[in-house]
Amino acid sequence: MKNANFPMDAEGHTYHVGLKRGEVCNRILTVGDPERAKRLAELLDEGAPRFVRETNRGFLTITGRYHGVPVSIIAIGMGMAMMDFMLREVRAVVDGPMCVVRIGTCGSIADAEVGDIIVPEASAAVVRNFDAFADLSHAGSTAAVPSDEDCYTLSSLFEGDAEVTAALRKSLGSRVGAEHVVSGVNVTADTFYAAQGRVDPCFVDRNTGHIERIQQRYPNAVSLEMENFALFHLARCAAPLPTGQSSIRAGAAMIAVFQRKKNESLSKADLAVLETKAGSAVLDVLASSLTDEEALLHDASTSVWA
Prior knowledge:
CATH superfamily of the domain at 101-290: Nucleoside phosphorylase domain
GO cellular component, one term: cytosol
Low-confidence stretches: 293-306
Radius of gyration: 20 Å
Pfam families: PNP_UDP_1
CATH architecture of the domain at 101-290: 3-Layer(aba) Sandwich
Structural class: alpha/beta
Distance between the termini: 28 Å
Organism: Thamnocephalis sphaerospora
CATH topology of the domain at 101-290: Rossmann fold
Strand content: 15-25%
GO molecular function: uridine phosphorylase activity
GO biological process, one term: uridine catabolic process
C-alpha cells in the first residue's frame, strides 16, 4: 500500500472494495445482500464478458452487460459506512460521470403496504446522539438525564437526481403497477434497532415516540432503512468533473418488507419475485442513462469488459 490517505495496492486495487480501473463500470446497481446481487446478475446478457470479485471486506462486484451496455452490480452489505467505502473507492477508479441506483429493502412508516416499492425523491439521516447516554457510563453518575427528543439527531434532506428518480418511477410502474410505486422522503438510520424506533428491553435506547418525531420533522417520510442517505449525500458532495458535469447521479428503489404501523412483513418468496422485477426496471434505467458515451469508454487494453 503506497498511500495511507487512500490505500491502493501496486496494481491499483482499492483497499476495501478491491477494484482497479477497468473492472467496474460507470453505471452501477448496488444492493446489500450478495445473494441478491447474484440473482440480479442473471438478468445480464448471456455470453457477454463477465467479471466477478468478492473481497474479504464483504463486497461483491459483478460486471457485465445489459442490453449491450456495460453495468456493474455491487453488493455492499449493510450501513452507511459500507456505502461510503463503495462510492469513494469506485469513484477513484472510474472515469467520467457515474449513475448509481440502489435496490434495497425498507420498513414502511406511512401508508405503503408490504410489497410496495418506494422511490424517494430525498433522504435524511437519523443518528444516535451518543452523548445523551453519558449518564449511563458508570454507576453513580451525576450527568443529567436528557429527554428522549435529545437522544437522536435528525439531518437536513438531501435529494436524489430528479431525472433518474422520475425514470425509476416510470420503469417500476410498468413492472409492478403505478399504484405500487410510492414517492416520499426516505429516512436512513445508523442502526436497525434503536434509531429505527424498535424497542429492545435489553438496552436503554430512549426512543419512545421516535417514529412520531421523525414524521413530525419530515411530514412526507415514508420509509426507514440504513444506506440510502449516504448515497444521496455523497452524490451531492462529489466534486464536479473537469467538464463541469455532475460526478455522480443517484437514485433508489426500496421494497417495503415491513409495515411498521401494521406489524406486517413480506414473505421471502414474494421478495424474490419483486427483486427480479425491480432489478429489470432499474437496469433499464441505468442502460438508458449517461448518454454521453464518449465519457464512459475505457481503454480496451485495461478493461475487463470492453
